[in-house]
Specification:
Blueprint lengths: L1 H23 L5 H7 L9 E2 L7 E4 L14 E7 L4 H17 L4 E7 L9 H10 L6 E3 L4 H5 L7 E5 L4 E7 L4 H16 L1
Parallel strand pairs: 3-4, 4-5
Antiparallel strand pairs: 1-7, 2-5, 3-6, 6-7
Length: 192
């Protein structure tokens, strides 16, 4: 009975996420307005912290440092698989990876557990498979990388430019158009 309820709950979440995803990606003239703003309008917040405390890379060989990602735009997504808000953002993050990876975007899913069962590698691997995540995911069980960003929320997005500077942040759900607009603007910078 409990397994059936969990399955039904997961299916409901996936269906709701798909509806939200397709509603967002239907024609929306406000995206054109977002893209009109200049990259210089994105503040230079702080130098992206170097990797610390990360283990168990999934979907990728270990990336040694942020410095190895210079020249690319990096979207750091702090999430955990048991967080419904994180699950709601996954369709957008996955779509940005699909759309922009070949243009220089690196999505890095940093799994920071809220509960004890979320610390187990096999549970994180199962979640990555269940949600069909294709970009690199790494565990931050001791919250060292999380603290380096002074993060306090799930989900949390940090967008790092090609020079290794954090230029945009967003906490929680929403602001998908603005986030994608910031990604596109920073990607244009590395192409010019």
């Amino acid at each position: 009975m409990i397994t059936n309820l969990k399955t039904l709950s997961t299916i409901s979440i996936v269906i709701a996420s798909l509806f939200a995803f397709f509603a967002f990606y239907s024609h929306d003239p406000s995206m054109a307005q977002v893209l009109k703003t200049r990259t210089s309008d994105l503040p230079r917040l702080f130098k992206a912290p170097e990797f610390r405390g990360l283990s168990n890379w999934i979907n990728s060989d270990p990336i040694r440092s942020m410095n190895d990602l210079k020249g690319k735009v990096v979207l750091v997504d702090f999430w955990t698989f048991g967080c419904v808000n994180c699950i709601h953002t996954l369709p957008y993050v996955k779509e940005w990876h699909n759309r922009y990876a070949d243009r220089g975007l690196v999505v890095l899913g940093v799994h920071a557990p809220e509960f004890q069962y979320e610390r187990k590698l096999e549970n994180v691997q199962a979640a990555v498979k269940r949600f069909q995540i294709k970009y690199p995911v790494v565990q931050d069980n001791d919250f060292k990388f999380w603290r380096a960003y002074k993060n306090r929320y799930w989900p949390a997005l940090f967008l790092v430019d090609a020079d290794g500077i954090v230029r945009y942040t967003h906490y929680g759900e929403g602001r998908y158009r603005e986030t994608e607009g910031a990604i596109v603007k920073l990607l244009k910078d590395i192409r010019s």
